[in-house]
Q: What sequence folds into this?
């Protein structure tokens, strides 16, 4: 019996929230078999038009006519076809194709993707949500509100990532931007977790995202000062450019470390895994090229006693969130899943979204990822253009910083 072949590959852009921080990109692959198609997430909100160009102008002509079953071979072909490879634009375009092919394979088999990955290790994946506030007491109230919804894992922040709470006076003539005071943030964060443990006790699992705001030696100090408060994990303590410092963090404290949402290349995560320098890998699955490299990364981590905590912010399409959940339930070394939640409109636009009950996310049991896209509705919410502010980070004296 001959396999279906790829008839067309195209990018679908939509922004149900209207925000330039949530421009979603979904790749749709249609096949030679009428009615058989797959969807994949290629969302890179900061450079959405560039990803769409790669998909429509380069990957469609490359892939038309190829056997839909040959996912591994197609992944490698697309990865090297531009000769220069990796990077978030190319990887997101590749992810859109890769996930769509997994979706198609599941539909042909009549099985959910988690079955193709080896079947469930658990019925659902534990999620964490994000609690923020301007004062420790306000953050504690938000944590309690999530606990009341059945959540056991909650990420606590104060004043957003990097804590933009203090008044900053940069030198005259400094450019506009997002100004952060790293030292005020460090002090406030230690105060926050002291308060949360005092108020909430030891049962709740608390997480925190440093968002690479601190210079390395201050990052080590924060990890040490948070050690008594027994975090589930401390996320993105250092930028990818400074991963050699993780060795020194490890020598100083046992605060569990999660890293990887900015990684785009296997050479970035390999030394951290081989050196057992992190406890959770949390790559953004579309930014590393899709489900195919993510399942290999999960397997690599399992051998080294490292768990997964895939990046799951608002700028992932519901198709991408579904892919996260299929991998979560079928990976023995799954840790926790970040969860941003869907709006009513997103759930209408993407029928079959994974469902949350009592702090767990459940994949549905339909073939493939079990999720669809109402293209007519998506067209009513086009992506808008604009310049991002939050990635124009600066320290108090006006120096450009990591966002
Ligand atoms: Mg993060």
A:
């Amino acid at each position: 019996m001959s396999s279906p072949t790829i008839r067309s590959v195209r990018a679908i852009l939509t922004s149900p929230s209207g925000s330039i921080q949530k421009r979603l990109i979904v790749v749709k692959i249609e096949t030679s078999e009428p009615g058989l198609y797959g969807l994949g997430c290629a969302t890179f909100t900061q450079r959405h038009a560039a990803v769409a160009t790669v998909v429509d102008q380069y990957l469609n002509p490359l892939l038309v006519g190829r056997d839909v079953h040959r996912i591994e071979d197609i992944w490698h072909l697309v990865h090297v076809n531009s000769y220069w490879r990796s990077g978030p634009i190319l990887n997101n375009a590749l992810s859109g194709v890769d996930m769509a092919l997994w979706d198609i394979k599941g539909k042909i088999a009549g099985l959910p993707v988690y079955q193709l990955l080896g079947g469930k290790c658990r019925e659902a994946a534990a999620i964490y949500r994000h609690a923020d506030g301007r004062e420790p007491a306000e953050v504690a109230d938000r944590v309690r509100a999530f606990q009341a919804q059945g959540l056991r894992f909650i990420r606590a922040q104060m004043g957003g990532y990097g804590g933009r709470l203090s008044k900053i006076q940069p030198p005259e003539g400094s450019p506009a931007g997002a100004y952060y005071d790293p030292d005020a943030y460090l002090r406030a964060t230690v105060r926050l977790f002291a308060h949360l443990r005092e108020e909430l006790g030891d049962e709740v699992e608390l997480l925190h995202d440093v968002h690479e705001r601190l210079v390395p030696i201050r990052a080590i100090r924060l990890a040490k000062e948070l050690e008594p408060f027994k975090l589930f994990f401390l996320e993105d303590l250092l930028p990818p450019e400074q991963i050699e410092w993780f060795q020194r963090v490890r020598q100083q404290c046992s605060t569990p470390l999660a890293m990887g949402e900015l990684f785009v290349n296997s050479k970035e995560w390999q030394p951290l895994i081989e050196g057992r320098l992190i406890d959770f890998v949390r790559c953004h699955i579309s930014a590393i090229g899709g489900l195919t490299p993510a399942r290999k990364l999960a397997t690599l981590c399992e051998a080294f006693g490292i768990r997964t905590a895939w990046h799951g912010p608002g700028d992932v399409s519901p198709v991408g969130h579904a892919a996260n959940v299929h991998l979560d339930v079928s990976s023995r070394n799954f840790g926790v899943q970040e969860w941003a939640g869907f709006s009513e409109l997103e759930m209408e636009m993407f029928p079959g979204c994974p469902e949350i009950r009592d702090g767990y996310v459940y994949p549905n049991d339909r073939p493939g990822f079990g999720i669809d896209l109402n293209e007519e509705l998506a067209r009513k919410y086009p992506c808008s253009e604009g310049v991002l502010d939050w990635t124009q980070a600066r320290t108090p004296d006006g120096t450009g910083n990591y966002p």
About this structure: The chain has two domains: 6-111, 115-368.
